[in-house]
Amino acid sequence: MRGRYGGVPMHERVTRGRSADPTPEDPGPGRHCWVAGGVGDDGLKRPGLLAEWRQAGAGWEGRVVYVGLAGPGRWVLVEEWLPADRLTPA
Predict the structure, then answer these.
(1) Degrees (nearest 5) of the Cα angle 77, 70, 55?
(2) I need a labelling partner for 45 at 20 to 30 A (CA). Which of 4, 57, 67, 86 fits?
């Protein structure tokens, strides 16, 4: 299945069964991504780190870490599972 931008969907980019030790050839499963609709959603996409994928009842979800706006001038580190359609490659 192709992603909405014509490329390979992000969940297909993360290779399963990689070594636990990063090397120049295998940097590990983490990938930079853009997060839409996260904590403190103000209509902007926030940079995030995609750590892993899982298949859920409604499709794929990515486990991401990003900085969200919890209140006026109050930023927090957020880790959560989000639907794949809210994540785009960076």
Answers:
(1) 55
(2) 57
